[in-house]
Amino acid sequence: MNALTETRADRDPPLGTPAPPPAWRRLLRRLRLPLAGLVLLAGLLAGGWWWSTGRFLESTDNAAIAGDIAVLSARVEGEVAAILVEDNQPVRAGQALIRLDDRDWRSRVAEAEAGLAEARAAVVTLTEQIAQQRAQVDAAAAELDAARAELARAEGDFRRAGQLAGGGYASRQARDRAEADLRKAEAGVAAARGGLEAQRRALPVLEANRDQARARRDHAEAALGMARHALADTVIRAPVEGIAANRAAQLGEHVRPGQPLIAIAPPPARQWVVANFKETQLARMRIGQPVRLTVDAIPDVALTGRLASLAPATGSQFSLLPPENATGNFTKVVQRVPVRIALDPATTEGLELLRPGLSVVAEVDTRDDPTRPSGLFAAAAGVLRDAMLAE
User: Fold this and answer.
1) Where are the beta strands (DSSP E) in the chain?
2) Using an 8 Å Cβ cutoff, are 74 and 89 in contact?
3) pTM of the complete model
4) Using an 8 Å Cβ cutoff, are 100 and 76 in contact?
5) Tens digits of per-residue pLDDT, 10-31?
6) Cα–Cα distance between 249 and 253 in angstroms, integer?
7) Which residues pair with 359 in a beta bridge?
8) Are strands 260-265 and 242-245 parallel, antiparallel or unpaired?
């Protein structure tokens, strides 16, 4: 027992001697300087990247996919006779989507066609009457010429009869007969002149009636055109290529003009991004700058685009009740400006998943040379390379 106790005592350190540090602490002490160097190097790389690249990248998550959604409504009244597409079905421009009952509208087209035929016949009738009246005017003018010739003959006979009667070579009866023929010829000229004037005055009346008939014909043509348009409107067609959505029409439903029936959403090729950047981020933004887009629905795919335009006013100015900063309780709030970003047409991956309304993170590269690398290590390598070239 005593021998064993003495052996353990010999192995234990004397009282008051500090215990040696653990192995991990000794390792940490050896790596302290290298770790400090790595941290300093990482800080320098991060600072250099921020100075050369990071401070020029303006990003926001207040962005979304946008597109023109056409909401189609009925233009005429009627019952839904057929629905020719399903929800979420791709459609072509001009493709029939919904057909309304067109029996009443076909009857209106037939009625308008009959009215137009009647109006055209009236124009033809009056045109022929005008031609006939002009012929009567010519005939009356010829009668006036004949009356004038008869008057000239009667005047000559009257002069000769007067001379013969004065010389005793003719009877007074012959002179009176010649005078009567003269008066008759004068009356004939007056009657022919009046008839010609009456025929001429009838011509403008017929021409005015023809103009009225032409106006009625034009009105009938317009009515027929409207009837045909209404008949064509019984078939609701897609105005553009897209995807059918939000189908509200039901078979047999009676619809009225202006009632929404179906919507056409745009394909990815006609979509864009609207990003609402803070006013403090707009100082270096210019049209045409590249934009990196990350869609929440496809986070593994990075899309690219170009800054297309900036809104002419902040988003709050287009609200129902825009703010009035002239009041005494004004509080300054950082405003946001909608920015339109056009998708790169060369991008194909992930486009089929884009839908208007999807959330997007947009990052605009506002550097003077946006073609330079923007990654941390690539940008740091670029900075070092530029520094070496400068030396």
Assistant:
1) 57-67, 70-73, 78-83, 90-91, 96-100, 235-237, 242-245, 254-255, 260-265, 271-278, 290-295, 298-310, 336-343, 359-365
2) no
3) 0.66
4) yes
5) 555 555 556 666 776 767 677 7
6) 7
7) 64
8) antiparallel
